[in-house]
Amino acid sequence: MPAREAGEVFGPRMTLFADVLSVGLATAVACLPLLTAPAALSTACAVLRGAREDRPATAGRYFALLRRRLRTDDFLVGALAAAGVLLLAADLALARAGLPGGAAFAVIAACIGACAMVAGLRACARPESLTDWRAALRRAARDCVRDLGGSGLVLLAVATAVLCAWMLVPLAFLAPGPLALALTAVDVRRGVEFIP
């Protein structure tokens, strides 16, 4: 990154950090309807990916891109994600109800849920998610298998975001920005290491 300009108080890294937080806040607002959560996170990843090409990573650019890209597929993916979360919650509730083999079932359900979450988050980071969710999900599933280290990094990023939100609730509104940055970094890292 270039050095600070004369008279500049903060360097470019601090500017990127501020942009990530503003995009995170915009993403949190866009996720409030729940069905728009995958599209909101995908748009945040696209905006932050553009920072590598010297495009501004601002909340204004974020909302402009989100407004242009929202389509029926985005709402269907959001409904699918919400249904998956509800199904996992119901399965875990049934496992705690004292059914035989409930503990083993809870572990298996949690592992399946974690794998689905990682694949879904990696799909949000793919550039294809802006136009074609099926291609993004297909490539993200392939990346999950080929790049286990990247999948581990995604799990760590989610755990960090959840821990920050748990420790200080207002951070929940800023957490989507660093999460989107981590997802984008894992995808860019994957692109450097693995040639499809």
Describe, in plain words, how this protein is organized in 3D.
It is globular, with a radius of gyration of 18 Å. It is mostly helical and 196 residues long. α2 (37-50) packs across α5 (102-125). The model has no long low-confidence stretch (mean pLDDT 87). It is built from eight helices and no strands.
Q: In a few lines, what is going on in this structure?
A:
The chain has helices spanning 12-31, 37-50, 59-69, 72-96, 102-125, 133-146, 148-167, 176-193. It has 196 residues and is mostly helical.
Strand content range: under 5%
Overall number of strands: 0
The general outline is: globular
Question: What can be said about the biggest beta sheet?
Answer: none
What share of residues is helical?
Answer: over 70%
**Mean pLDDT, all residues:** 87
Assembly type: single chain
> H/E series, N to C?
HHHHHHHH
Structural class: mainly alpha
* Radius of gyration, CA atoms, in whole angstroms: 18 Å
**Unreliable spans:** none
How many helical elements?
8
N/C terminus separation: 28 Å
Helix/strand layout:
Layout: H1 12-31, H2 37-50, H3 59-69, H4 72-96, H5 102-125, H6 133-146, H7 148-167, H8 176-193
Helix pairs in contact: 1-2, 1-8, 2-3, 2-5, 2-8, 4-5, 5-6, 5-8, 7-8
Main attributes of the structure:
196 residues; mainly alpha; globular
